[in-house]
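Posting for a labmate who doesn't have an account.
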Amino acid sequence: MFSERAFFSFVQLTDATTHREYNEWHQLDHRPENLLLPGVAWGDRWARPAEYVPLHRASSADLIDIDYVAMYWFRPPYDESVAAWTKLGEDSFQWGRGPLLPGIRRPLLGFFTPVKGYAAPRINVSADALPFRPNRGLHLSVTHLADPHGTDAHEWFRWQDRVEIPALLSCPGVAGAWTFALHSLQKHPTLPRLSDDRREFGPGTLRIRLLYLDADPAEVTAALDDIDNDWAAAGHGPESVGELLFHGPLRTIIPWQDW
């Protein structure tokens, strides 16, 4: 496994007029500075445009209004890599270049442990190469586990690994998958406002299933929903082990074009 630490940021813009400003900052300033750090292996971001909102489902309102998701993969040694990355946040603030921009709410900022990667046989590359392979978007599922080390969670993890994800890899447009378990929520030492107005989650209580897509995310989601609905009816859905916080497609952001 090329990385054992990742970071996810779920972002809502409370002012709809700031999308272009936010995208310019993130893609032309914030992300390049992050990718320059030796401890950052890769970083990417995706949008949930208005036409994708009806394709989303959840049993909780925590992430229901998010507009963007960003993620970063770190290289070892992880404590040093995360410390340098955290310092960049403070440096950027001192430069007057974010990340505390107006009109931004971040309901979930967390470090996650990658559990396992899967590559569809048709794409040839390894699961470790998936994050670096161009994609058209994601299908992302975030589950809050009622008992992250209970027997129900263990059985669901087994089913997800042996049944669910192998079946999804055969769906047209699904290039591969990764699963993640929450390591810890971000608590920035000098920028505590990044964590304002958010729900607390303990280690291991969040599980992410991330599908990399190389076809239109909305079209792929229609096919995935049919499969997910059948599994949910059979008692294998995320709701069988906890709350479904987010389940739906995200679109890759093309700079300038999608701002």
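Reply:
Got it, the structure tokens are right above this. The beta strands are 6-13, 40-47, 68-74, 104-119, 137-145, 174-185, 206-213, 242-252.
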